Amino acid sequence: MTQRIAVIPGDGIGLEVTWAARQVLEAVTIKHKIDLVYDEFDWSCQRYAAAGEMMPADAIERLRPYDAILLGAVGWPGVPDHVSLWGLLIPIRRAFRQYVNLRPIRVFEGVRSPLRDAEPGAVDFVVIRENVEGEYSEIGGRLNRGFPDEFAVQEAVFTRPGVTRIARFAFELAGTRGSYVTSATKSNGIVHTLPFWDEVVAGVAADFPEVRTDSEHIDALAAKLVLDPGRFDVIVASNLFGDILSDLAAAVAGSIGIAPSANLDPTRTYPSMFEPVHGSAPDIAGHGVANPIGAVWSAALMLEHLGHAAAAADVMAAIEESLMAPDTRTRDLGGTGDTASVVSSLVALLG
Amino acid sequence: MTQRIAVIPGDGIGLEVTWAARQVLEAVTIKHKIDLVYDEFDWSCQRYAAAGEMMPADAIERLRPYDAILLGAVGWPGVPDHVSLWGLLIPIRRAFRQYVNLRPIRVFEGVRSPLRDAEPGAVDFVVIRENVEGEYSEIGGRLNRGFPDEFAVQEAVFTRPGVTRIARFAFELAGTRGSYVTSATKSNGIVHTLPFWDEVVAGVAADFPEVRTDSEHIDALAAKLVLDPGRFDVIVASNLFGDILSDLAAAVAGSIGIAPSANLDPTRTYPSMFEPVHGSAPDIAGHGVANPIGAVWSAALMLEHLGHAAAAADVMAAIEESLMAPDTRTRDLGGTGDTASVVSSLVALLG
Ligand SMILES: CC(C)[C@H](C(=O)O)[C@@H](O)C(=O)O
Ligand SMILES: CC(C)[C@H](C(=O)O)[C@@H](O)C(=O)O
């Protein structure tokens, strides 16, 4: 069975790390006799500069038939975020109802956590971020623009179906892991949406009596991620809280450069999208030094989503192995390798 | 000149740490010939259990004539947050237009930061949190309660005067310190209120050409607090972002137990309120082991606000000194001291 992948390298180091992920996919799919075919799309800030749009008007329609989307990074100096992100990344997340943003966090051997006590292996959790509603709603605006009495409002929107499905995903996932869910809230300060979140999450939790659960205010939870990251298994959080916690957690694990993410439509009605957490990094773009691990790990998540668990596990084993030696780690991890040498090492390990 | 202090010990360890702060204030005001008088109010969850309200209906009126308010902690198991916090803490912040929540962060010698690289002295910054508007607005509600199509909305509200005054406070403060302001945003995802925040902060920044400034998305900023906390001087943030960053920063500094806060009305129309960042800690309440430093440091901020800078500096010097020895640190800091022994040491140092 052939599975079709839409590849959007995007901007900056997005191109380099997507190339890297493709090499690794090539090696592992040969080994496992998996039939993936790829189409590449040049949708990016560069395209915006030339054509006035990040992606064509029929982009969503064109992506729809694919089994998955592999994305590098989008964004470039001079192109405002509301163009680059809201013209590509966020419309894809929403049009394909990728309501789960899954972000695994691990402290690997060879990667130095900024935390004294974070032993390799001891930190291993997943942030499940709600990805299509919540604080990122477009509802809002400004009044009295430019005047001293100007103000802006923005509405966070939490729906029962939206919170139920993300909570259910988190509890199901926890059932396959450490059977422990931590829900991020701030119901003591944000008194309409987050008490509702708590209530719906508690309702879902009742259906999973074998999963331990607790609820932490986002301020205390952020502190605990630093004081005791080893305690977590699955963290479920709203769009904004999940964004903050997953970046923070990636820092705790030692590097944003290795952090992957999956934007999932668990109903499989639409293609899911896989992308590293890092951005396009204009400062190092084109130098061949970008850390490809975030993109490669994202590709492993894609393989898993496409039903190739053994291949995904092989990629993860190769990542673990290559992170151990300085010459197969990039400079951001204190190594001496570059993008190409890390790729060679991964490909060799998968050979 | 006599200055009058309203003392609200509140709940749990709030009582113990307020007692501690009072002892230290006693010692330092004698030394500096400062005339403070205190009235204590038993407003608390205990009062709620007995009288059905956290504080009397005329509480705000009664507090108004004071020069400052010293608060311990509020909250107790069984009393919901919307009663304990929204029945005491938040109404005081709002009625007295304490629009600045100031939270200094320092890594002290003797306090072990969870970060490998956080050297004592190298981390010293202040989080300036907007304290009366933003994401904590009460505007919002639910529709279709209990039905499958239920949803909740909550409106964040940012006003030009509100953002201007908090930004101005931050830039003025930075002028007396390291001349560097970092503004927390998320304008790439939250597209109405935070672009407005950015615009107003940039306008204020233009009036302070001698202060360096940058703007960071909250996700990246949380990561940087862990990866490079030494780079910050003053961080200015909305109500929610400031809450998250200041708790996270307190963890980075090694303990929530030492973190202080000042809820300020810089116009001095109303009394300002000083409280440790920690809560009422029911698990250790009454055991005499609570870390009093958060409350004592808050008292030092109060002295400064009341015009007694030399006395405040003396208290800070005593805190620094006592944190160095294990027997004058509490157990949460790896010491062998308890609340009373830390107080004795502070009082002796101020003698
Ligand atoms: C208790 C809660 C509402 C409060 C807040 O977030 O304002 C607390 O976390 C704080 O930081 O003072
Ligand atoms: C770029 C931004 C809008 C985006 C988000 O917050 O969703 C990014 O930070 C991410 O986490 O994918």
TrEMBL record, chains A, B:
Keywords carried by this UniProt record: Manganese, Metal-binding, NAD, Oxidoreductase
The reaction(s) this protein catalyses: (R)-malate + NAD(+) = pyruvate + CO2 + NADH
All copies of domain Isopropylmalate dehydrogenase-like, residue ranges: 4-346
Classification via InterPro entries: ICDH/IPMDH, IsoCit/isopropylmalate_DH_CS, IsoPropMal-DH-like_dom, TTC_DH
Cofactor(s) the protein needs: Mn(2+); Mg(2+)
Pfam families, sorted: Iso_dh (PF00180)
EC numbers: 1.1.1.83
Domain of life (superkingdom): Bacteria
Any one GO MF annotation of this record: NAD binding
Family: Belongs to the isocitrate and isopropylmalate dehydrogenases family.
Protein name as it appears in the record: D-malate dehydrogenase (decarboxylating)
